[in-house]
């Protein structure tokens, strides 16, 4: 047994294997790891009443380091969340905690529940719903992605306003944890999310503006609400979900990723294992309905709505793409299409594109060209987009090198040719910024 103290093998790799409506399988493999990285994963897990002597010492040092900002509400549970988030590195935990305090002071987080009024557009269009506690007493929030119009928000509302709204939502969850702690007589410090991907299109998921805002949301949560996630259930995930998840992985900690559970259509049993049927809405597999019998429970779930382009009040602040340097132009005749080849030299490179049309919409698709130069493998089926209203952008992580193709499709238009202005960029692997403390 002493030999085990020298080196420990552990690890979890999530391999997404969609079998139509079958749950994505989780495959556990072994990865070599030094004992110095054990922290919260072995024996003592870094929670109150379950600490190693090293962790006890780190807790003491962190309290001393931030004594100047200590509040009576900062108990051991509070300090340990910051320590676990930084693997009990006291200096990193202190830096993370101080940045959080600066952010909270800047945004007024301590009084946000009393003083903040949700803007009308956000309140109407941002999908969300609080379901209730799970079997362990942790709050459960439901979020349907179908009408999560992140691009629409990017053109309609300042990013700071969206992040303030989400800070408000996270603070509501923490308040609910405090109430449930009083009710149950035990400390509740984590919450759960049910993230419903049904109806969330590939075009929505890979839009560059959507990805940028989503990653800012992830950084807000990771940087200011560490160790609050108990479980995230991703349900109704499409075949391309692993591609979408990869776009946010650089901003997610390994600890958070291990709390993700990925399901296709076969998710109801898993939810019922953790949430009582009387609390879980009927459309998610439970028994709960609205008082009028509505199984979608719209009395406490806001399913949101797509934002109309007429609300794109920030659109005019965006420079027309055709006025920028390095822009290419292509004319697509009526009843025709044009292909733009993109050479990708390395595995896991990221292709980013942005385009606009001078008049009317156009369909865009994304493909991989096989070595024979003829066969195109469809990665993103052509979808009509309103690129004449706002620039349309997209991002794709390339799992293999080779030639990728953007298809501008105008075959549906009998009368109008389209002039397309576009820019394409290929980023090397790992070009995205890794998860850190940079978000303020």
From TrEMBL:
Superkingdom as given in the UniProt entry: Eukaryota
Protein name: SEC14-like protein 2
CRAL-TRIO domain location: 118-292
PANTHER family in the record: SEC14 RELATED PROTEIN, SEC14-LIKE PROTEIN 2
SMART domains: CRAL_TRIO_N, SEC14
Gene3D superfamilies registered for this protein in UniProt: CRAL-TRIO lipid binding domain (3.40.525.10), GOLD domain (2.60.120.680)
Species: Trichonephila clavata (Joro spider)
Domain GOLD positions: 311-426
GO cellular component labels: cytoplasm
Pfam families recorded: CRAL_TRIO, CRAL_TRIO_N
């Amino acid at each position: 047994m002493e030999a085990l103290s020298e080196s420990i093998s552990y690890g979890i790799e999530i391999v997404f294997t969609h079998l139509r409506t079958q749950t994505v399988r989780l495959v556990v493999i072994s990865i070599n790891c030094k004992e110095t990285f054990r922290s919260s994963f072995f024996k003592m897990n870094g929670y109150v009443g379950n600490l190693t002597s090293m962790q006890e010492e780190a807790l003491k040092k962190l309290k001393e380091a931030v004594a100047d900002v200590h509040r009576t509400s900062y108990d051991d549970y509070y300090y340990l969340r910051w320590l676990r988030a930084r693997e009990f590195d006291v200096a990193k935990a202190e830096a993370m905690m101080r940045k959080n305090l600066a952010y909270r002071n800047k945004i007024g987080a301590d009084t946000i529940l009393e003083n903040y009024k949700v803007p009308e557009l956000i309140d109407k269009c941002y999908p969300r719903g609080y379901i209730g506690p799970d079997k362990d007493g942790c709050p459960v929030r439901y979020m349907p992605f179908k009408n999560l119009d992140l691009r629409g928000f990017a053109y309609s509302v300042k990013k700071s306003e969206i992040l303030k709204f989400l800070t408000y939502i996270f603070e509501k969850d923490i308040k609910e944890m405090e109430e449930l702690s009083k009710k149950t007589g035990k400390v509740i410090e984590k919450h759960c999310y049910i993230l419903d991907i049904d109806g969330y299109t590939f075009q929505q998921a890979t839009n560059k503006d959507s990805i940028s805002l989503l990653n800012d949301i992830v950084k807000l949560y990771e940087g200011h609400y560490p160790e609050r996630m108990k479980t995230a259930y991703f349900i109704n995930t499409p075949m391309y979900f692993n591609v979408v998840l990869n776009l946010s992985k650089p901003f997610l900690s390994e600890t958070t990723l291990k709390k993700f559970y990925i399901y296709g259509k076969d998710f109801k049993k898993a939810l019922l294992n953790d949430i009582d049927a009387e609390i879980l809405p009927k459309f998610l597999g439970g028994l709960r309905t609205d008082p009028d019998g509505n199984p979608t429970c719209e009395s406490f779930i806001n399913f949101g709505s797509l934002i109309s382009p007429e609300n794109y009040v920030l659109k005019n602040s965006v420079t027309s793409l055709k006025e920028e340097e390095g822009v290419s132009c292509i004319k697509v005749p009526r009843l025709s299409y044009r292909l733009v080849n993109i050479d990708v030299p390395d595995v896991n490179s990221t292709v980013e594109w942005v385009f606009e049309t001078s008049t009317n919409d156009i369909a865009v698709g994304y493909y991989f060209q096989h070595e024979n130069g003829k066969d195109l493998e469809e990665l993103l089926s052509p979808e009509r987009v309103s690129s004449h209203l706002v620039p349309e952008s997209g991002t794709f992580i390339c799992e293999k090198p080779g030639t990728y193709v953007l298809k501008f499709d105008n075959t549906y238009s009998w009368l109008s040719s389209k002039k397309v202005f576009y820019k394409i960029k290929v980023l090397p692997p790992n070009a995205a910024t890794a998860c850190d403390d940079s978000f303020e």
